[in-house]
Amino acid sequence: MNRQGTIVRTVTGTLVVGAFLLSACTATISPNRSSKVRQVPDEVVNLAALGQDLSTARLLPEDGCYWYEHRGRVETTLLPLRSARGNPICVAKKT
User: Organism's domain of life (predicted)?
Assistant: First the structure.
């Protein structure tokens, strides 16, 4: 085999492998963040930081704050729903 044939096969192989690896890079983006969320008000949805499962969010009467279920590998845990600044999202207490 000549040198030119080896180069063509190497480049072709590299392109095939590169295309295969890039095909795995896809992003799933929800067009409307509030479309799945029905339990919490729109104001809470707009305040909540990304990366929290708003479909499981709920207001707990014990503390007046919103909590969501974080599903880990081992267990599901309730975590406080936080704003983009990291503060818990709670309702004002009536006096």
Answer: Bacteria
User: How many C-beta neighbours within 10 Å does residue 53 have?
Assistant: 15
- Paired residues of 66 in beta bridges: 59
pLDDT band at 39 (very low <50, low <70, confident <90, very high): confident
Structure tokens, 1: 């085999």
d(CA 21, CA 23) in angstroms, rounded, equals 5
86 phi, psi to nearest 5 deg: 95, 0
- One-letter identity of residue 8: V
> Cα separation of 94 and 88, whole Å?
18
Q: What is the DSSP string of 16-61?
A: HHHHHHHHT------S-GGGS--SS-HHHHHHBPTTS-GGG-EEET
pTM assigned to the model? 0.58
